[in-house]
């Protein structure tokens, strides 16, 4: 794990970067238009408000997994002060630097499945599908153990990710399926070619070809892959790492989670008296 400032100019096309950081390649495709779809807007401010509200102890520190272009870390840092932020994509970290306006976000280039900073945090969070972008249940389990190890006793892990029921509902009886939705606030259209396949026994992967079309007809495109992760499965992974489920919401305004919710927001606590989580646990 290195300071992003040391690696942000690297733009290799390989999965394993020159500096040894494994990256899925999402940022290489999406960094040029990510902020057109996921705007640094009122919704991001509401998310930052929610995270600041549930933080158990700001003095113990804060870490975001998959910071991307800083959509959430930047407004959160404006509220609570320093935020450490890891991402495997040098392209997304370069976009974060472009968006920064003096906020104390400490960007780190690394892969959270394999490594986290060698310190503890009062709150760690992964929002906007990041935990579902981890490519296998085994790697999600490793990531959960890394988190449990890096949480201070009494600290919380907050996950926001998509509700698999809504992916199936969006696709209806079609697989593959193509949908187009106008995004009014962004002033364009998002066309998605979706395909759900069984990637390991009992585990579904949602592969999307996203095409972002501007009003003038210009477009950007990229492929995104998510491991469909029901909240019950996330809970199981957390329990295996010694974390205890607490809050469950369907929106950052506090609406309850249900089958109709596009996403879930779940928090897990490391019990104050918990035994330290070992590297051996992370390797299982
Ligand atoms: C969907 S974006 C979310 C960005 C930001 N959190 C937001 O809410 O706008 C997911 C980010 O996670 C990063 N990412 C995915 N898997 C990762 C991993 N194993 N280690 C580090 N970063 C990862 C991607 O490069 C991407 O920037």
**Any idea of the CATH topology of the largest domain?**
Rossmann fold
Average of the residue pLDDT scores: 92
Structural class comes to alpha/beta
Q: How many distinct beta strands?
A: 12
* Unique bound compounds: S-adenosylmethionine
**Treating each run of at least 4 consecutive H or I residues as one helix, how many helices?**
9
Q: Give me the CATH superfamily of the largest domain.
A: Vaccinia Virus protein VP39
Strand order of the largest sheet: 1-4-3-2-5-6-12-11
Silhouette: globular
> How many separate structural domains?
2
CATH class category label of the largest domain? Alpha Beta
Approximately what portion of the residues adopt beta-strand conformation?
Answer: 25-35%
The Cα radius of gyration reads 18 Å
Biggest sheet layout: 8 strands, mixed
Q: Uncertain regions: pLDDT < 50 for 5+ in a row?
A: 6-15
Known CATH architecture of the largest domain: 3-Layer(aba) Sandwich
The helix/strand series, from N terminus to C terminus, equals EHHHEHEHEEHEHEEEEHEEH
Helix content: 25-40%
EC number: 2.1.-.-
GO biological process, one term: methylation
InterPro entries: Methyltransf_25 (IPR041698), SAM-dependent_MTases_sf (IPR029063)
Keywords: Methyltransferase, Transferase
């Amino acid at each position: 794990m290195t300071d992003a400032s040391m690696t942000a100019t690297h733009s290799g096309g390989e999965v394993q970067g020159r500096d040894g950081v494994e990256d899925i390649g999402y940022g290489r495709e999406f960094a040029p238009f990510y902020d057109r779809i996921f705007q640094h807007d009122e919704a991001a401010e509401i998310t930052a408000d929610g995270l600041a509200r549930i933080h158990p102890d700001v003095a113990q520190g804060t870490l975001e997994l998959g910071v991307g272009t800083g959509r959430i870390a930047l407004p959160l840092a404006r509220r609570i002060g320093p935020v450490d932020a890891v991402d495997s994509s040098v392209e997304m970290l370069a976009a974060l630097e472009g968006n920064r306006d003096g906020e104390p976000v400490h960007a780190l280039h690394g892969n959270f499945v394999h490594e986290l900073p060698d310190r503890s945090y009062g709150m760690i969070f992964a929002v906007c599908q990041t935990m579902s972008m981890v490519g296998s249940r085994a790697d999600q389990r490793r990531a959960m153990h890394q988190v449990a190890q890096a949480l201070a006793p009494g600290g919380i892990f907050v996950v926001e990710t998509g509700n698999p029921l809504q992916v199936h509902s969006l696709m209806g009886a079609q697989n593959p399926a193509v949908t187009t939705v106008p995004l009014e606030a962004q002033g364009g259209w998002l066309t998605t070619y979706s395909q759900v396949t069984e990637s390991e026994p009992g585990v579904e992967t949602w592969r999307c070809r996203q095409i972002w079309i501007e009003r003038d007809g210009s477009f950007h495109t990229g492929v995104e892959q998510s491991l469909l992760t029901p909240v019950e499965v996330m809970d199981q992974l957390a329990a295996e790492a010694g974390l205890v489920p607490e809050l469950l919401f369907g929106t950052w305004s506090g609406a309850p989670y249900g089958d109709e919710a596009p996403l879930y927001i779940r928090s897990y606590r490391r019990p104050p008296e918990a035994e330290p989580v070992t590297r051996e646990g992370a390797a299982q």
